[in-house]
Hints:
By secondary structure, this protein is an alpha+beta fold. The chain is 27% helix and 26% strand.
Amino acid sequence: MLDWQIKPLAKKSALGTDIKVGDIVVSAVYVDAAGNFDRADFILSEFDESKIPGRVIGRWERKVGANPDADERMARKMALASSEDFFMSLFDEKSAVVAEEAGVVKQMLALLLERKRILRPVGRPRGGIQKYLHVSSKRIFDVPQYNLSEDLILKIQTQLGSIII
Length: 165
């Protein structure tokens, strides 16, 4: 079973500014010209979506706490929170993601978050959709269900290579 995690925040913003404790960082996941997913981290005051070299498919904000590199448990907690934020951002109204790859990313993140008890499946899949309950917000998400072949998983993993570990 794959256990994807979103890579931790960069030490510098996409514009080269050092990221410090207390900064609010905007992480934006986008699809570049080659069709690969990538992520850019910006300090909130620097964020300008028009400067991102691709189509943004999800974004979230996070306040930088104490140095997560100093505490492995805190780093894992931040990575899981980023996975949750990324998943939820894929369903935002602004996100016009319809590609099969994005649907597979939704499905795989949902499976990860289900394992971590952040999402709970509601009933059985119907019409190619599995409903999930986000436990803390009580929000329901319709997650597309695909036949996750090894080739498709490897393709997505390659595309997500710069944002997951």
